[in-house]
């Protein structure tokens, strides 16, 4: 077992390593793969993955690197009280039992009692129980707790927006309380991973990533920051024991690098390779996976200040200026135009307001004039990621956006950012001095994957008193969201969420740009893969032919 957090001074060396791989000059990955038992000899069940992240996600609770960290690291090392049913592709996944076997809300939806699964062991052999749940909740929410982790608290704050208290009832029962009637606790707890309290106490928060220990289907057996993570099957897993012996993760931020690694046989799975490579990949027998799922590129206007604060016509003008079909064509139709934050057919899609924003240059120019802006006078700065989890193809998409806005007389300066830096800006808020120069911020939300996630983008003021990170305050949308969250009936929740979506479209609160089709490409050796309507994947169903 080799677990080492190796940081070689600066992340600046990572792009060079990726370029070498793309040129076929980096033998390191191939050697590491063979050393991990990931070759095809001996019949080993080893799946090697080229991630779009610029670094291996930290195996903390939760991981970093966006939802790619959850998909490949979090959901494999850890379990939560609930889990999504990702072993099917027919419908949007919903919360199912995991470390909790069942749960029951109070009549007023302010207290949820979870009955925990008995007989579950952490990877270090210690017992999972109610004390472990309380330990992790305290670790993420109580600053005076000895093992409080400010880093994990920041990354996992969204799951706790309405959760105010928790308590052990007995060794296998916990109760979670909320600040208001709230129906989405089972969704929230699906992303609150439970680590071994024994391991956290033994190594401390600062060293924990080198010793990450959960109850999940895979055990971390190798971790070299910036290079590789190896996950080995947990033969004593309480649930469906994986078919794979190992998963080996490589960070490869450049689409060309992922394509090169796949076609050279160095990996078996590539996230979002270059879209113009799909014909070649299909001809060579690779499996192209595409499908609708809750994810989109929906940039956010800085509504803390001019020019977008209280200026609906300007926000509408830029929405009408976007040539979404042209953008889709540039990326070989692995994404498609968005008319709302969620796609047509999603239960929260507002069918009464489904026209959205078409490509209409003349209407955009007219609205620009109504906004009080003369063509050629408006100069904007837009921040976007250079790569990273679920961001499709930012460079080519941003160049198209820049040209579209120039066509109506709006000048956009593009500001590329490392993915985690952009995530920090989206969490801290565009009113902060270091981010307030940004006029438009790229956003790639899990658009409708979990209803509890809407609060980040749609609420004027988040529970706890923090303002919307982009300064957006559409009271009609906020009220609809809060009402939806208090409905015990799912159909009623969806009805109010549709009202929220319609209010956001009317107010042009986002750049409604593109929906993603969840592109990934697999070697024909990969069997049993299910392409879910989710960011996340169930790796326990997968085997290697």
Any overview of this molecule?
It holds the Pfam family SBP_bac_5. Keywords: Signal. InterPro entries: Peptide/Ni-bd (IPR030678), SBP_5 (IPR039424), SBP_5_dom (IPR000914). This is Solute-binding protein family 5 domain-containing protein. It is a single chain. This protein has 545 residues and is an alpha+beta fold. It has three domains: 182 residues, 3-Layer(aba) Sandwich (D-Maltodextrin-Binding Protein, domain 2), CATH 3.40.190.10; 118 residues, Dipeptide-binding Protein, domain 1, CATH 3.90.76; 221 residues, Dipeptide-binding Protein, Domain 3 (Dipeptide-binding Protein, domain 3, Roll). Strands 1-9-10-11-2-12-21-13 form an eight-stranded mixed sheet, with helices on both faces. It has a four-stranded antiparallel sheet with strand order 5-6-8-7, with helices on one face. It has a four-stranded mixed sheet with strand order 15-19-17-18. α13 links the parallel β17 and β18. α1 packs across α8 and α16 runs antiparallel to α17. The longest helix is centred in the C-terminal third of the chain and has 17 residues. It is globular and about 65 Å long. The N terminus is likely disordered.
Return the CATH architecture of the largest domain. Answer: Roll
State the fourth-level CATH superfamily of the largest domain. Dipeptide-binding Protein, Domain 3
Q: Widest sheet: strand order?
A: 1-9-10-11-2-12-21-13
* Basic shape: globular
The number of distinct helices, counting runs of at least 4 residues, comes to 17
Give the low-pLDDT segments. 1-42
- What does the radius of gyration come to? 23 Å
Number of domains: 3
Termini separation: 26 Å
CATH topology heading of the largest domain? Dipeptide-binding Protein, domain 3
CATH class of the largest domain: Alpha Beta
Question: Mean pLDDT score, rounded?
Answer: 91
| Percent helix | 25-40%
By helix and strand content, what is the structural category?
alpha+beta
* Main sheet characteristics: 8 strands, mixed
In what range is the share of β-strand residues? 15-25%
* Count of extended strands: 23
InterPro entries: Peptide/Ni-bd (IPR030678), SBP_5 (IPR039424), SBP_5_dom (IPR000914)
Domain Solute-binding protein family: 94-428
Keywords: Signal
Protein name: Solute-binding protein family 5 domain-containing protein
